[in-house]
From TrEMBL:
Ubl conjugation found in the keyword field: no
Enzyme Commission (EC) number: 1.6.99.5
Any Pfam family the entry gives: Molybdop_Fe4S4
InterPro entries referenced in this protein's UniProt entry, alphabetically: Mopterin_OxRdtase_4Fe-4S_dom, NADH_UbQ_OxRdtase_75kDa_su_CS, NADH_UbQ_OxRdtase_ferredoxin, Prok_molybdopt-oxidoreductase
GO annotation terms (biological process): ATP synthesis coupled electron transport
Gene Ontology cellular component terms for the protein in this record: membrane
Name of the gene this protein is made from: nuoG_2
Keywords noted in UniProt: 2Fe-2S, 4Fe-4S, Iron, Iron-sulfur, Metal-binding, Oxidoreductase
GO molecular function, one term: metal ion binding
Protein name in the entry: NADH-quinone oxidoreductase subunit G
Organism: Raoultella terrigena
UniProt keyword annotation of Zinc present: no
Enzyme class: oxidoreductase
Amino acid sequence: MTGHSFRRYRFTKRTHRNQDLGPFISHEMNRCIACYRCVRYYKDYADGTDLGVYGAHDNVYFGRPEDGVLESEFSGNLVEVCPTGVFTDKTHSERYNRKWDMQFAPSICQQCSIGCNISPGERYGELRRIENRYNGTVNRYFLCDRGRFGYGYVNLKDRPRQPVQRRGDDLIALNAEQAMQGAADILRQSKKAIGIGSPRASLESNFALRELVGAENFYTGIAKAEQETSADDADGAARRRYSYPGAARH
């Protein structure tokens, strides 16, 4: 045992109740050093209004007015912003391991067409965590919650590992060349083809599909309401990028 095993502090120590912030973020308020980084980030950059600081002087509490999921789509960045671990990745805690035991590699997020830079962490052949990787022209220091926490499907045991084709009630495994040839044959034989894109696919792949089936037969795979919301978010992000106090220093 190292260090001292007793304290000379004679008074009752203050403890705080932790909040339930949803399925992605754990809350451990007793680790807080009142640096205010979480509140400044959440209000100034993430445009969130449901996380704040309550109290006065040396008795303050950082959290929501009541238990519940954080409303901002960028709330997961609190995990990296907090220096003491008040906010931690709950999905990683389910299969926890030390950060230095993981192997990280640079990658690009596939959840949408923006292409945020990420650093996925692997342990024993299993994806354990995704962290943000700085890119000054794309995502800068932050990552949305879909990109940070939406990797669960990667570790599914029944996830398809190679192309398959349904023949009757059976699924026949194919190699990449057979799958490409089969898809080409179906397109040649069809009188009219409709292409459905995906926000997980690259811009080049979606454009190639659009050119193949024609603009009138192409669908982006994104609901109209979601497209309008994404456009509003992009406009808000652009305004924050050029009005944020730290933008001029980059």
